[in-house]
């Protein structure tokens, strides 16, 4: 059983006294990560989503003309139907090979607005275990992510969490 850990308070994870702001230098390294992950997994969208209180915002997104998302886009987290909402709620990775064939994803905004039918996402945590957000990739076609794909995502998530530990001085 996975222990669920949730952020506390309205400003959790927003650069408050408990959590430092993410530096430009770190954001640049994360840009490389999302570009590399999207390229290796051959998907149009790779991004880091950040939880900011009641919202989920695009923190970094890959450079690809097919990617419909922009840094700073945000949506209400609770009840959004976003794939990332499920990752943050459950605190574990999520693989959706084809949301079109899965009625539980009816109304998913990524599918409805952009046709992004497949998803692979991993939770990212601050050093104290509080959820920062997600590292995720999306595709507009069915995709059975391989063990190697999942390993790459896990390693990149670990690197991002290492950056967060460094920012927090741990």
Automatic annotation (TrEMBL):
Q: Which residue stretches belong to region Disordered?
A: 1-20
Gene3D superfamilies per UniProt: 3.30.450.40
Residue ranges of every copy of the GAF domain listed in the record: 25-165
Q: Which domain of life is it from?
A: Bacteria
Quote the Pfam families the UniProt record gives.
GAF
Please give the name of this protein: GAF domain-containing protein
């Amino acid at each position: 059983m996975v222990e669920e850990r949730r952020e506390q308070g309205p400003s959790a994870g927003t650069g408050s006294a408990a959590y430092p702001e993410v530096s430009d230098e770190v954001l640049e390294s994360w840009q490389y990560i999302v570009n590399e992950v999207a390229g290796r997994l051959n998907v149009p969208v790779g991004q880091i989503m950040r939880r900011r209180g009641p919202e989920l915002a695009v923190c970094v997104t890959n450079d690809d003309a097919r990617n419909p998302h922009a840094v700073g886009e945000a949506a209400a987290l609770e009840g959004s139907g976003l794939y990332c909402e499920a990752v943050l709620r459950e605190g574990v990775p999520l693989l959706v090979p084809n949301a079109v064939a899965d009625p539980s994803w009816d109304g998913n905004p990524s599918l409805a607005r952009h046709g992004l039918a497949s998803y692979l996402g991993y939770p990212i945590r601050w050093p104290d275990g509080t959820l920062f957000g997600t590292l995720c990739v999306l595709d507009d076609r069915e995709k059975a992510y391989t063990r190697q794909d999942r390993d790459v995502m896990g390693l990149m998530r670990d690197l991002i969490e290492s950056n967060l530990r460094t920012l927090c001085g741990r």
